[in-house]
Amino acid sequence: MVWAQLFTWALSFADFVVYKGEETRGESPEQQALLERALQADPQALTEIYDQYVERIHSYIYHRVGQMELAEDLTAQVFIKMLEAIRSGRGWRTTFVGWLYRIAHNLVIDHYRRRGRATFIDIDDAGPIRATDGDPVGATESILDREHLRAALDLLTEEQAQVITLRFLEDRNIAEVAQIMEKTEGAIKALQYRAVLALRRVMQP
C-alpha cells in the first residue's frame, strides 16, 4: 500500500532527536511503555504503532473524503507528520490517539480548504460500482446515501462533522470519541446531540 511504503521510507531515513515525553493520559501501562519507546525513536515501537492505527486512520479519512486513493495519500501524510513531530521533539502532550486523529483531521480540513470543500467526482473518473448479492440498484443507492451524508457533513462545523464520523461511521463509543477529541464524555454527548440536530436539518429534503 502507498502509505505503508512511504512510512517505511520515512522510518528508514528519519534522523531522530531522542527526548523525554510527558506522561500520556488514558493509555494502558503496556501502551504507555510502547509510546515511551516510540519517543526514544525505537523503530520496532514506531512500526507497532503504525500497525495499530493505520487502518483506523485510513478509515476515518476515507469516510471524510470518499476517495480511496486520496485517503491513502492523506493517511501516508499523517504518519510522515507523526515521525517528523517525534524527530523534532513536538510529539503528543495529552493522549496519543487524540493527537494522531488531530493530525488526520487537520489534513482533511486542509484538503477541503484547497479544494473549496468541493467533493464531486467526474462520472468518467469514478470507479465501477460493486454490487452485492446481484443487486446493482441497491449498491448504487448505498453509494448515493453515503455521498449524501458526506455532502451534509460538509455543512456542519468541523467538530460536529468529526463527532458524527467517529460515532456513526466509525462506530466508536462515547468514551473512545472523548479520548480522540480530548473532551469529557459529557461534552461529547452534548456535541453529538447538537450535531445530530444540525445533520437532520441539512439532510431534510
Q: Concise description?
A:
About 70% of the residues lie in helices and about 0% in strands.
Layout: helices, strands, pairs:
Blueprint: H1 2-13, H2 29-39, H3 43-65, H4 68-87, H5 96-115, H6 136-153, H7 158-169, H8 174-181, H9 185-203
Helix pairs in contact: 1-3, 1-4, 2-3, 3-4, 3-5, 4-5, 7-9, 8-9
Helix content: 55-70%
The low-pLDDT segments are 16-24, 118-144
Share in β-strands: under 5%
- N-to-C span: 40 Å
Mean pLDDT: 75
Question: What is the approximate shape?
Answer: globular
Q: Major β-sheet, in short?
A: none
The H/E string reads HHHHHHHHH
Q: In total, how many beta strands?
A: 0
Number of H/I helices: 9
Give me the secondary-structure category.
mainly alpha
Q: Specify Rg, calculated over alpha carbons.
A: 18 Å
Please explain how this structure is put together.
- The structure is a single chain.
- With 205 residues, this protein is mostly helical.
- The chain is built from 9 helices and no strands.
- The protein has helices at 2-13, 29-39, 43-65, 68-87, 96-115, 136-153, 158-169, 174-181, 185-203.
- The longest helix is centred in the first third of the chain and has 23 residues, at 43-65.
- The radius of gyration is 18 Å and the shape is globular.
